[in-house]
Amino acid sequence: MTDEKNxxxxxxxxxxxxxxxxxxxxDGVSILEMNRGEGKLCIxxxxxxxxxxxxxxxxxxxxxxxxxxxxxxxRIVTFNLSLVEEYMQKLDSELFYMFYVQSETKIPxxxxxxPVYEQLAFAVSEACDEYAAKDVCFSLTVRANIFILISAxxxxxxxxxxxxxxxxxxxxxxxxxxxxxxxxxxxxxIYIDTLADMVNxxxxxxxxxxxESIGKxxxxxxxxxxxxxxxxxxxxxxxxINEIADKAGFSxxxxxxxxxxxxxxxxxxxxxxxxxx
Length: 277
Prior knowledge:
The structure is a single chain. By secondary structure, the protein is α+β, with helices and mostly antiparallel strands. The protein folds into two domains: 2-159, Sandwich (Jelly Rolls), CATH 2.60.120.280; 162-277, Arc Repressor Mutant, subunit A (Orthogonal Bundle), CATH 1.10.10. The chain contains twelve helices and seven strands. Strands 1, 2, 3, 4, 5, 6 and 7 form a seven-stranded antiparallel sheet that branches. β3 (28-43) and β4 form a beta hairpin. The two termini are 17 Å apart.
């Protein structure tokens, strides 16, 4: 897994009966295709049911886990953000960031009736075939199809933006310093006044705009970021749970258990046991 995370891209194909597949890529974005069957996909603190033919966008730095019932097949294309970001224009990068922020709280699922579905299906299929064959210049073809995937998704995202979405876009870009501060300092005490000062507004106005633009209150969002950090530590390390509470930014272990249960509908210990199955 460590070697995979240092590569520009990695492709996983898994099929069988009652399969489970997941991962965590700090700098990687994944596109998951439910090639056959159905199951439940958890991405960070969010969850969605996936059925045959669905494509799902998985943002960076979030633990994901698919549990499929019955006969199933899944393909996952994961690539390092640096592979595409260096070729993006300013607007492209801003759109990518906006899409990332919104996909944290609302999982993007592309079904057969979606306008870019055929492009996603073609690019994923081509990338998987090239990766499996590993013929001459296969890595170039895989990279080309990754560019097609991201271009199709961001163009579709941009095309559906109305007046309300353009205002949300403006607000999210304005909130970006506060959002990045939350991610970088989630293990510390975070004050709403501090976040509001970063974007030069009052605490009340900051909370209002944050909720309207992100879909969560600042406190809910901070808790979600901390729970996501806990999910990473629970699934990727053997760190004792009480230490994880502190490393994830919860100074009180009892409060950590309460918030974790509220977001994940299970205890930290049960979550870890399920990851190790």
